């Protein structure tokens, strides 16, 4: 009897668990919800402020001895780097939603979410919006079913973790997490344009000024604006639409090299403001800024989730002697490449977490690594006057590009 | 397949052997093969428990292999108590960790990295256990309730504006089942 009194509770416990024989699965993911703001409220916040520290540096642009650094979605830092060893942080121009910049004279061209602005910077400490051009980047007005009307911008995303339960005991074995609603921002592109380019952009820019024209790419079109009157751009042609997703624009002489997710496009701009298709070199689907020296084009192909890449990231060297028929010369494996820049026979490649890679391309068929700078996470670069301006997560780095003595000149923070 | 749980099991087993010499405790191993009955397709469990008994109690360390939706290696502490000696009935309780053997694969389109930290396991059941007369060998048969928890975390990129940042997505699997276990004891 004593034994039974001990056994009974255990048996009852076991029986009571019958209802628990069930499989459950819960999924915890991040939910993003758009935050809208009226355009006039956003534009009213655009103003100059004293120079402040870099927090999330984005694309870079050089004009004279001024370096403009995009603070992702916040605005533009302006540095005077007349003395590369002692750059001066002169001002910060607050521009919400800003990712891209270009400068001509006293006019700063900048995107503000889906629109493009011209901003008078004749007095850096009193920047003033002079013109607004709506819907130049339409991809930033909608995302994942959310659409901002013409009076609003999507200015941010509320983020919260959400957990839901599934009945299916194995809902996601081997499947892909579907977290995000992408709202494109872009990749950049670069230039040392030789046809009267006004400033020099990083290799991942989407804005480029050649002569009196501002060329820019949004996700699916190439647009050209006549900026003879800098403060009031006028469309010089209707947008040229692409099936591919466009990312970067790089001017060289009378050509534009456009990086897209599925290849490189070359356009002729000898008739200013009227880009004409020349040729195209296809590659697998990746993100790819491209630069050229006129004889060869260099493109980094980044195969990540967002770029849809199914092959390895790499650097491609393309022979463009015959501009009508660019041909792939060779490839170099990379880890997570973004922007790139050429200085003499050296090609500097921002390889993300793998650091800054410097390759000797005196023989373009067989680039060889001559130096690797670790400890930084770079993604854009401008070669100018023997200095390599590198935008990295950790700040802006100025390297002396002398092949015999590559070294860090200074760092902007 | 990860070797970490197997190494851990071997290490703890070696540690157990050092206790073997303790007075009053006698080594005994229970080796089970079990059929799993739950919501999902029928599963299989093979476990081996190595430990010591004294009087009516038995404590051991166990490991093995299980397939129920996913392949896993359990690693657990086991406790037995003789409930009704007259009928050779034993109460059992196991608790420990379960390691997934088959993680979801990484993909270039979103699942950039997968982590599968070990999850909790708990089991309770009743065994009928009988030794073959005048030997240390025996057989057992029992009914158990079993609970398993697994986690998988996927890293993907969030890129409303670039540079992109990482976002983790987590799946938590909880399996509750009955297991009929047949055991060989020595």
Summarize the structure.
The complex is a heterodimer of chains A (413) and B (186). By secondary structure, chain A is mainly β.
Structural class computed from helices and strand pairing of chain B: mainly beta
Q: Which pair of chains forms the biggest interface, and how many residues does each contribute?
A: A-B, 55 and 50 residues
User: Alpha-carbon distance between the termini of chain B?
Assistant: 30 Å
Number of strands of chain B: 9
How many strands, what sense, and barrel or not for the largest sheet of chain B? 8 strands, antiparallel, barrel
Number of helices of chain A: 2
CATH C-level class of chain B: Mainly Beta
Arithmetic mean of pLDDT of chain A? 81
Low-confidence stretches of chain B: none
Tell me the β content of chain A: over 45%
Helix content of chain A: under 10%
Radius of gyration of chain B: 20 Å
CATH architecture of chain A: 7 Propeller
Oligomer: heterodimer
Q: What are its keywords?
A:
heterodimer; A: 413 residues; mainly beta; Methylamine Dehydrogenase, Chain H; 6-stranded antiparallel β-sheet; B: 186 residues; Porin; 8-stranded antiparallel barrel; 1 helix
């Amino acid at each position: 009897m004593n034994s039974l009194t001990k056994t009974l509770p255990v048996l009852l416990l076991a029986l009571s668990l019958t209802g628990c024989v069930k499989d459950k699965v819960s999924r915890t993911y991040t939910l993003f919800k758009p935050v809208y703001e009226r355009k006039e409220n956003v534009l009213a916040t655009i103003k100059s402020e004293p120079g402040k520290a870099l927090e999330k540096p984005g694309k870079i642009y050089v004009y004279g001895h001024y370096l403009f650094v995009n603070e992702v979605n916040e605005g533009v830092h302006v540095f005077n780097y007349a003395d590369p060893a002692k750059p001066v942080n002169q001002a910060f121009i607050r521009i919400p939603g800003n990712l891209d910049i270009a400068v001509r004279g006293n006019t700063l061209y900048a995107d503000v979410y889906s629109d493009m602005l011209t901003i008078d910077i004749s007095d850096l400490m009193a920047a003033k919006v002079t013109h607004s051009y709506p819907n130049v980047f339409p991809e930033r007005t909608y995302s994942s079913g959310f659409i901002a009307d013409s009076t609003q911008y999507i200015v941010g995303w509320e983020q919260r973790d959400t957990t839901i339960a599934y009945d299916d005991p194995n809902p996601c074995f081997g499947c892909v997490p579907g977290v995000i609603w992408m709202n494109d921002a872009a990749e950049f592109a670069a230039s040392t344009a030789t046809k009267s380019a006004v400033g020099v952009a990083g290799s991942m820019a989407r804005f480029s000024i050649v002569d009196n024209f501002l060329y820019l790419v949004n996700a699916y079109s190439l647009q050209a604006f006549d900026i003879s009157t800098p403060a009031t751009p006028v469309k010089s042609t209707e947008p040229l639409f692409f099936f591919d997703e466009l990312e970067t624009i790089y001017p060289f002489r009378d050509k534009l090299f456009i990086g897209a997710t599925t290849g490189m496009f070359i356009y002729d701009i000898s008739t200013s403001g009227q880009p004409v298709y020349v040729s195209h070199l296809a590659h697998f689907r990746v993100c790819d800024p491209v630069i050229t020296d006129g004889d060869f084009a260099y493109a980094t192909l980044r195969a990540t989730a967002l770029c849809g890449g199914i092959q390895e990231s790499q650097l491609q060297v393309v022979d463009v002697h015959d501009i009508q028929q660019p041909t792939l010369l060779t490839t170099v494996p990379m880890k997570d490449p973004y922007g790139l820049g050429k200085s003499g026979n050296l090609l500097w490649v921002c390889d993300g977490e793998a650091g800054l890679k410097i390759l000797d391309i005196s023989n373009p068929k067989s680039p060889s690594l001559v130096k690797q700078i670790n400890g930084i996470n770079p993604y854009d670069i401008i070669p100018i006057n023997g200095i390599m301006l590198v935008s990295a997560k950790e700040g802006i780095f100025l390297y002396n590009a002398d092949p015999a003595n590559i070294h860090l000149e200074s760092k902007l923070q | 397949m990860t070797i970490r749980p197997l190494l851990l099991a071997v290490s703890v087993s070696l540690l157990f052997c050092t206790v073997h010499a303790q007075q009053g405790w006698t080594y005994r191993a229970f080796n089970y093969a079990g059929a799993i009955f739950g919501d999902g397709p029928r599963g299989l469990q093979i476990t081996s428990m190595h430990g010591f008994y004294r009087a009516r109690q038995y404590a051991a360390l166990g490991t093995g292999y299980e397939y129920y939706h996913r392949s896993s290696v359990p690693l657990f502490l086991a406790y037995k108590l003789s409930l009704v000696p007259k009928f050779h009935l034993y109460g059992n309780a196991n608790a420990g960790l379960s390691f997934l053997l088959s993680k979801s694969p990484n993909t270039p389109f979103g699942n950039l990295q997968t982590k599968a930290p070990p999850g909790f396991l708990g089991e309770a059941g009743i065994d009928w256990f009988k030794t073959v007369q005048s030997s240390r060998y025996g057989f057992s048969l029992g009914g158990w309730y079993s609970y398993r928890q697994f986690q998988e975390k996927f890293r993907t990129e969030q890129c409303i504006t670039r540079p992109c940042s990482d976002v983790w997505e987590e799946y938590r699997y909880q399996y509750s089942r009955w297991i009929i276990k047949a055991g060989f004891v020595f």
